[in-house]
Amino acid sequence: MKDSLHLSTERRESPPAPRKHSHWIVFLVVCFLLGLLVFKAVLHMIGTDTKKAHMVHAASPVETVPVRKQTLEEVIGGSGTIEQFNAVLLTAQINARVLEVPVKIGDIVKKGDLLVRLDDRVIRATLESNRQLVEANDVKIRDLTSQLSRYTALLKKNMGTQLDVEKSEMTLAEAREALAKATLLLRQAEIELEHVEIRSTIDGIVLERLVNPDEFTRPDQAVMKLGIINTVLMAAKVTEEKIHSMQLGLSAEITFPAFPAETFQGKVFKIDPNTDPVTRTFTSYIEINNSGFRLKPGLSGFARIHRTAKDVLAVPSVAVINPSGDQASVFVVNDDGRAELRKVRLGVVINAMTEVTGGLKEGEKVVTVGQLYLNENDKTHSTSKSNMAK
Asked: Is residue 36 part of a domain?
């Protein structure tokens, strides 16, 4: 009985042997698949990583794009305020009391408009007095001239003395000197009378009013500051990374919240090379025609400055090696699939594209990815992304 039980037990336990065999098969299949994955991963790294390809002396994987002619366009934005194109400082020329200042800050004035009127009563009295003095000296000189002629005639007839002639000459000379002084004082009074009214020398806007009625002026004292606004400047603040893009003469479009339905045209007139250390911006001054005087100093707006390079050879900026130095170069893949280091001359940089003014021809393929570990004459192969870029 026991023997039969033992035999039946052995029969039941014998089937597991085939399972061990299947485990090995599964293990081998898994190892093969893993090995295949590792092999493919290695091939992928060699095919996509230039550094890894160098290690096994394989062709370097690179991405290339053809050199093409294209139009590069960039819009540079900056906010700012309106400033007068230029300023004129008017000064008083005489000592006098201010009677009238008929303008205030912000007023638009035309050339010839009255700005300041001074008290002219003392000047007119001085003018009249000097005029009478000149006339009196004229009469006196005529009389003394006649008297000298008589003394001279008597002396020639031995009826007069040399002393009388000399005294007459001295008196005439003194009268002439007095006439010269009176004439000078008369001219000064006439000039002062011309300056009792200070008028605008330009069409512009009153920026500063520096005198008021009942105050007294002195020569060369500033009394009024005018701004020239038939042309105005928009002082646009532009971020410092755009300083290489800014050029004189670039066209601009300016909008103002005060004129929401209008766009004003202008051009870059001046560029301040100094960067604000706090805002990291520099100022570009845009000239705007303001014949209607609608744009006043202090008006805020936003400028869009357009920079365009038409029909130029260009490559992606990432393709350029040492772009900031004088040895700028790119890698070109020749017809044999080998890398050739080429020196190039660069132009403008707009929206991650760089103009090439020399060193490349249209249609040549430049390396944009993988050039870091490339050497001259390395064998290369282009990735699928290069074909997509075409």
From this structure: no
